[in-house]
Design a protein that fits this description.
With about 200 residues, the chain is an alpha+beta fold. It contains 9 helices and 5 strands; from the N terminus they run E-E-E-H-E-E-H-H-H-H-H-H-H-H. The chain has a 5-stranded antiparallel β-sheet. Helix 2 crosses helix 3 and helix 7 packs across helix 8. The longest helix is centred in the last third of the chain and has 14 residues. The radius of gyration is 16 Å and the shape is globular.
């Protein structure tokens, strides 16, 4: 089991990144909450990881904190929640927000995440009640601010598509973004507007 990676960040294509560890490039899928905290390309980063082994693939998921990884592990134990949906949940809600939504049985908030309908939201509340810790999650600071280019806009759209939104929703959410928005801020703003809708 790969539990942690420390290496040079060499690619950022949300939600996937590539971390070079001793000359080996690990493809890692990360939730947007972790993506926002990544350092600039070429800089050193550390991620807590979870390896999913399937018949057709070995998938590595990375998180900025142990608490976020633990929340991911609790999510994938819920019947009907796979790794991709768990990643979408953690991209739409922080670990603390998810714990609060589960504790308060906020089905509307939970079902605002792509791939989570009312029945799945009810299952999340039922199966995760009392299992999610809040607060105290240690995260690493970082992130590079740079002006958005047309490629950055497509990165924002691609991130939204990877999280389960359709082309129309992604285009609508990115339409009103400021021209100088960074990729991470653009995704964050787009997710906020999609959550309100």
């Amino acid at each position: 089991m790969i539990g942690r990676l420390t290496g040079q960040l060499i690619e950022k294509l949300p939600p996937q990144i590539v971390v070079d560890v001793g000359g080996v490039g690990y493809e890692v899928d990360v939730p947007m909450s972790t993506f926002y905290q990544l350092p600039a390309l070429g800089e050193k980063t550390t991620l807590y990881t979870h390896l999913v082994v399937r018949e057709d693939a070995h998938l590595l998921f990375g998180f900025a904190s142990k608490g976020e990884r633990e929340t991911f592990r609790q999510l994938i134990k819920v019947s009907g929640i796979g790794a991709k949906i768990a990643l979408a949940v953690l991209s739409g809600l922080s670990a603390d927000e998810l714990a609060l939504a589960v504790a308060s049985e906020d089905l509307k908030r939970l079902s605002s995440v792509p791939g989570i309908g009312k029945k799945t939201a009810e299952r999340l509340v039922l199966e995760l009640r009392g299992k999610l810790a809040t607060g105290g999650a240690v995260t690493t600071p970082g992130g590079l601010a740079f002006a958005a280019t047309p490629d950055d806009k497509s990165d924002i759209v691609n991130a939204l598509l990877a999280l389960g939104y359709n082309d129309k929703e992604a285009a609508a959410a990115t339409k009103g973004l400021p021209p100088d928005v960074t990729v991470s801020d653009g995704v964050r703003l787009a997710l906020k507007s999609l959550m309100k809708g």
